[in-house]
């Protein structure tokens, strides 16, 4: 998840144009997400992803990133947290609308590797509230917005974190931070 130095994951209206991305970052993220076989989204992020990624790689002027991410997106199991989204016909997609902890535990018990949460600040807030996040994979952007949608809000209990050795800085100034939640 991209984050600003002052802790925002989006501007006040959900803007993301401040997030610095380039081929170096796309290549790195592309390699990293190959280890995940489940993508977790909130409804809004899922709908944005679903509107773009299934066919993005098929366009005549598609970039390397679009081709690779589109292929991954079509194959990955998607889990969507939503009380309003309906869709028994959604291919390779599970909707969780209640009993979040129990339903997510079922997903975790399935064969596979990492479950990666993409964007989705509202879903992230809900998962943090219920202590359901095992780690934070953040891309710290060298910008201060001053206002926006925070990554952390209404935290009632402290969350202990351990920095993992995969931290690195990219040439565009973005710093990757990987934290494991210490329980």
UniProtKB/TrEMBL annotation:
Instruction: Give the transmembrane region(s).
Output: none
InterPro entries listed in its UniProt record: DHFR-like_dom_sf, RibDG_C, Riboflavin_Biosynth_HTPR
Every Bacterial bifunctional deaminase-reductase C-terminal domain range: 2-166
Q: Gene3D superfamilies per the record?
A: Dihydrofolate Reductase, subunit A (3.40.430.10)
Q: What is the name attached to this protein's record?
A: Bacterial bifunctional deaminase-reductase C-terminal domain-containing protein
What's the source species for this entry? Mycovorax composti
Lineage of the organism = Bacteria, Pseudomonadati, Bacteroidota, Chitinophagia, Chitinophagales
């Amino acid at each position: 998840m991209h984050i600003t130095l002052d802790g925002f994951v989006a501007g006040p209206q959900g803007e993301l144009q401040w997030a610095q991305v380039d081929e170096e970052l796309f290549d790195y993220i592309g390699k990293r997400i190959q280890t995940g076989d489940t993508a977790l989204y909130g409804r809004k992020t899922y709908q944005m992803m679903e509107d773009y990624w299934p066919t993005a790689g098929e366009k005549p002027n598609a970039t390397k990133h679009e081709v690779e991410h589109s292929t991954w997106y079509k194959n990955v199991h998607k889990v969507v947290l939503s009380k309003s989204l309906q869709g028994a016909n959604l291919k390779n997609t599970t909707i969780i609308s209640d009993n979040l902890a129990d339903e997510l535990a079922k997903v975790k018990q399935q064969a596979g590797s990492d479950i990666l949460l993409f964007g989705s600040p509202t879903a992230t807030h809900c998962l943090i509230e219920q202590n359901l996040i095992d780690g934070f994979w953040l891309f710290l952007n060298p910008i201060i917005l001053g206002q926006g949608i925070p990554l952390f809000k209404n935290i009632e209990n402290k969350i202990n974190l351990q920095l993992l050795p995969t931290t690195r800085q990219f040439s565009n100034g973005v710093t990757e931070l990987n934290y494991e939640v210490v329980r």
